[in-house]
Design goal:
alpha+beta, 3-stranded antiparallel β-sheet, 4 helices, globular
C-alpha cells in the first residue's frame, strides 16, 4: 500500500511539473494574438503608464526638436535613434487611429507619426518593454497618447528675425512648452500666480485663447506638481497653468511649431513670452 501511494504521489508531482513547464513556455513565447498585431500598439508600463510601442513591444519615442512635425534626427543621430515606420494600420482597439499618420523625410523615406510627432526607437532598448531612452538630453521622451503638455526645442522667430531664449537677436534653440500636438504656449507677463488677468471677454479669448486641459501626464523633464488648473470666470473655462502661469495660445500661430506671438506687445518676449521650461514661478497676487 505504501509503495502504491508513493507511486501515485510521484505521478501527480510529475504531471504538475509538466503543466507548469508548459504554462511557463506558453507565457514566455509569442501568442497567436501577439503574432497578429500590426502597426502602433499601446502598452502599460509601471512607471510611465500608457506608452506607444511597435507590434513587437519595442518602445517608441518623441523628439522635442520635432515639435513642428518635421523629422530632425538625421545622419549620425539615427544611429542612436532609428526611425520607426509601419504601413500597417494599428490593430490596437484602444489606440486613437485618427492620431496616427506618416511623414516623408527629406531623403524620401517614410516615418510614422503620432499626434504629429515622428516616432523613433532608442538603440539602447535591447528588448521589448525597456524604456531607457526617456529623458535623454532633456529632449527625448517616451511616446505617450496622453500628455497634457510637451516640450519644444526650437528657434524663436518673429517677423523673420531669430531670437535667443533671452529675446536678443540671434540663433539658438529654446526649450519651451507646447500642447500635446506641438502648438506653442505663452504666458501673459502681468498675470499673477494662478490668476488670468488678461481674459476679460470672449473677444480677447479669441485672440489669445486659453489652453484648456486637465492635468494628465507630462514629459519627465517637467515636474508634474508645477502643473495646475485655474478657473477663468469671465469665459467659464478651466485653464492649465505651469509654475502658476496661466497658459495661452496665439491666434496667428497657424501651424504647429509657430512661435510668432513673442513679438506682440512692448517688445519680443516682454508681454507674451513663450513659457520656457526654466521659467520662474509666477508672482503672488
Amino acid at each position: 500500500m505504501l509503495i502504491y501511494l508513493k507511486r501515485n504521489l510521484l505521478a501527480v508531482v510529475c504531471v504538475a511539473l509538466v503543466f507548469m513547464a508548459c504554462k511557463k513556455n506558453s507565457s514566455e513565447g509569442p501568442t497567436p494574438a501577439d503574432n497578429n498585431k500590426k502597426g502602433i500598439q499601446l502598452a502599460t508600463d509601471a512607471k510611465f503608464g500608457s506608452v506607444l510601442t511597435d507590434k513587437d513591444g519595442k518602445t517608441l519615442y518623441f523628439f522635442a526638436n520635432d515639435a513642428a512635425g518635421t523629422p530632425t534626427c538625421t545622419d549620425g543621430c539615427e544611429t542612436a535613434w532609428p526611425l520607426y515606420y509601419s504601413a500597417d494600420a494599428s490593430t490596437d482597439l484602444n489606440l486613437n487611429k485618427a492620431e496616427v499618420g506618416e511623414v516623408t523625410r527629406a531623403d524620401g523615406r517614410k516615418q510614422s507619426t503620432y499626434l504629429g510627432y515622428p516616432l523613433y526607437y532608442y538603440a539602447g532598448d535591447a528588448s521589448k518593454g525597456e524604456i531607457k531612452g526617456d529623458g535623454v538630453g532633456g529632449i527625448w521622451f517616451v511616446a505617450k497618447p496622453d500628455y497634457s503638455l510637451m516640450l519644444a526645442n526650437a528657434q524663436l522667430t518673429g517677423n523673420n528675425i531669430n531670437y535667443t531664449s533671452t529675446y536678443v537677436v540671434g540663433d539658438g534653440k529654446t526649450i519651451y512648452l507646447t500642447d500635446s500636438k506641438g502648438r506653442t504656449l505663452y504666458a501673459f507677463a502681468p498675470d499673477k500666480n494662478g490668476v488670468n488677468t488678461y481674459t476679460k471677454s470672449a473677444t480677447q479669448e479669441g485672440i489669445w485663447p486659453v489652453y484648456e486641459s486637465e492635468v494628465l501626464n507630462v514629459p519627465s523633464a517637467i515636474t508634474k506638481t508645477d502643473v495646475g488648473v485655474t478657473t477663468v470666470a469671465t469665459i467659464s473655462k478651466k485653464q492649465l497653468t505651469y509654475k502658476g502661469w496661466p497658459l495661452y495660445y496665439w491666434v496667428s500661430d497657424v501651424k504647429r511649431g509657430d512661435n510668432l506671438g513673442i513679438i506682440i506687445g512692448r517688445g519680443p518676449g516682454l508681454t507674451w513670452p513663450v513659457l520656457q521650461l526654466n521659467a520662474t514661478v509666477a508672482p503672488a497676487q
